[in-house]
Design goal:
Helix content: under 10%
Strand order of the largest sheet: 2-8-7-4-5
Number of strands: 36
Radius of gyration: 27 Å
CATH class of one domain: Mainly Beta
């Protein structure tokens, strides 16, 4: 008689994690030491080491290893540097595979995000027609020149998470992305016809950078310059101020040939136009006002108007008006706004529809609110002001030698 033996390939790999400890705390940014013993009856063809959230979605790049043996002692460092990660429960996971089977093993850890702090103010200043300067003001009011960028200027936005500033040009450049950590231009898009590329207030940043062009389109970019949004605009319309709001991108389309302007709503996923509503004003700023509504600050015939827009039903109405042209504004809370007009500044309380005049005679054209420290930062022609809140008093004034184009708040994450 003869007998034959069938190989048993049902045994799965065994993984024993010795580091990190169950429930160990790590502070972002940090490095997790991963130590584990992996044993199998077959050759281990691959290992995967990663970090997943509570929904088991990977949050750091997966690391792949190829042991080529039936046992393996894993010792490695898993960097966790993503500033966008929130405090909470996560799992270090190891996946071991042979030709027939696999095993996943998870170890619970807790990530603790650093508290958000204001690092410094970033200034964009005018150097000449082909160059802008970037400077920083620290919390002790010391000024540090960082770089000069070869570009003309229409707008800028800051991305603290990815440590970048974005600058939109007119004729020389489309977009420039400068990285503060490595002190160099991360990526750049040169200008292309038709020119000019942009008008003022053309940028909006929230997770991605959205920019309106003088003709034809609105684009959205990731921090690395990859295109993630594309909406086409007809030739007789000039897209200016934009906002990302829930699942939409909302744009102020100004007519180039006279007649009505439009508030136009695009689907964020596709860039397809959802709807539009005719207007006769030019938007200065859009704000999320809660209750699925957008607050609009605009100018009509050199006079400010405050309006509310509901993109779900495509309706808008006037709430109040301002006796002079709105220059700039900042949202302090869902119901409180700082608004500047020539020579007059005031707090506007949305719920009560009331004004409170502040800082009489102070001319401002940039205003930013820091919710971390409850302070207002503002700029005149060549001065930066630190303004206390809620009493609204100037605490400090820093004089800048170059003309100020924009002012940004730069955080640690």
């Amino acid at each position: 008689m003869s007998s034959c033996r069938e190989d048993n390939n049902d045994q799965i790999p065994t993984i024993h994690i010795t580091s990190p400890f169950e429930g160990e705390n790590f502070y972002i940014p940090d490095t997790i030491s991963v130590n584990a013993s992996i044993v199998n009856d077959q050759i281990l063809t691959s290992l995967q080491v990663g970090l997943v959230n509570s929904q088991f979605v990977s949050v750091v790049p997966i690391i792949y290893l190829f042991p080529g043996n039936s046992s393996y002692q894993l010792e490695m460092e898993l960097p966790v540097t993503q500033n966008e990660l929130e405090s909470g429960d996560y799992y270090v996971y190891i996946r071991a595979e042979d030709e027939f089977n696999f095993k996943n093993e998870y170890q619970h850890v807790r990530l603790i995000q650093q508290p958000k702090i204001l690092e410094k103010l970033i200034l964009v200043t005018y150097k000449d027609a082909a160059n802008v300067g970037i400077s920083a003001i620290d919390l002790e009011n010391n000024i540090d020149h960082i770089a000069d960028i070869h570009t003309d200027y229409t707008a800028s936005e800051i991305d603290s998470k990815h440590r970048q500033i974005y600058i939109a040009g007119v004729n020389l450049m489309d977009l420039s992305a400068y990285n503060f950590d490595n002190d160099e231009i991360e990526w750049q898009r040169t200008a292309f016809p038709p020119l000019p590329m942009h008008t003022s207030n053309c940028l909006f940043f929230e997770e991605n950078l959205y920019t309106s062009y003088s003709t034809y389109f609105i684009y959205g970019f990731r921090y690395n310059g990859n295109l993630v949004f594309n909406a086409t605009v007809e030739e007789n319309k000039l897209p200016s101020r934009i906002i990302r709001f829930e699942d939409y991108l909302i744009a102020d389309l100004q007519s180039k040939v006279g007649g009505y302007n439009y508030i136009t709503t695009y689907y964020l996923k596709t860039g397809v136009e959802k709807q539009r509503i005719s207007t006769n004003y030019k938007v200065v700023d859009f704000y999320d006002a809660g209750n699925n509504e957008v607050l609009i600050l605009a100018n009509e015939n050199e006079q400010g108007t405050i309006r509310i827009f509901n993109p779900e039903v495509n309706s808008e109405s006037e709430l109040n008006n301002v006796t002079d042209k709105i220059i700039c504004s900042a949202q302090i809370s869902e119901s409180e706004y700082f608004i500047s007009t020539p020579g007059l500044n005031f707090l506007y309380f949305l719920n009560q529809q009331e004004y409170q005049e502040v800082l009489p005679g102070t001319n401002l054209f940039i205003v930013k609110f820091d919710p971390v420290n409850s302070e207002i930062f503002a700029a005149g022609l060549n001065q930066v002001f630190v303004i206390s809140y809620p009493d609204i008093e100037i605490q400090n004034a820093v004089t800048i030698s170059d003309g100020i184009l924009n002012l940004h708040l730069f955080y640690n994450r």
